Amino acid sequence: MREPMHELIRSEKDYIEDLRKCIEVYISEFDEAGTAHTLPNVLRGRRKEIFGNYEKIYAFHAEKFLHELSKYEDDPEEVGCSFTVWVDYLNELYTDYCVNMEQNHDIITLPEAIQFFSAIREKHKLENNNDLNSMLIKPVQRCTRYQLMMDQLLKNCTGNLDEIRLGVLADVSVVEHVEGDPGRFGLRVGTAASNENRTDLKASKEEVKVIWVKRVRELTQGLLPLS
């Protein structure tokens, strides 16, 4: 029971570090270019559309949620309290983020944007898997990981199952094909086949979409390690 809980906290710290890296590299460079009037025309005035509430998500996890999870490190059967206390705020944060990403993700697929953000990645010597696309999808991936990790806690729990069950987030499934755009896919919450519970995301190209879909499915099905 302790090991899944430790993994939850370790992966939360890794997630926070990834968010911090994106803010200190991509968002900071974007802001500096804006101040210096060197942003490409297609990116000017588009900070909110590109990054959404990314910094707000980081602040919540770094300043509040990690501390909340850590309170139950030695009492993992009560960790569901962390989710039940914050579930409404988590839903608000991530719904806002996913909706903004769905509506505006096309911006970073424009040639000028790709060139600008690729230059930032190379300047900071980040690997290809830390490109802006990969950093922006991390909040979406994190939602699926919470589901998986809470399921693992349930499997190892011998006591307060009800409290943990209350903390399990809604099931997330992948809609691989969205009509009209080969680079677009959807994430659906719950089991009902309804577009009302679906958020569409767009990759820069179909090959990238295939990678994203595969990774999200592996996460939700427990085929990938949590670290």
UniProtKB/TrEMBL annotation:
Keyword set includes rRNA processing: no
Alphabetical list of Pfam families matching this protein: RhoGEF
Residues annotated as domain DH: 1-209
GO CC term (a single one): extrinsic component of membrane
SUPFAM superfamilies hit by this protein: DBL homology domain (DH-domain) (SSF48065), PH domain-like (SSF50729)
PROSITE patterns: DH_2
InterPro entries the record matches: DBL_dom_sf, DH_dom, PH-like_dom_sf, RhoGEF_Guanine_NuclExch_SF
Keyword line: Guanine-nucleotide releasing factor
UniProt protein name: DH domain-containing protein
Protein source organism: Heterorhabditis bacteriophora
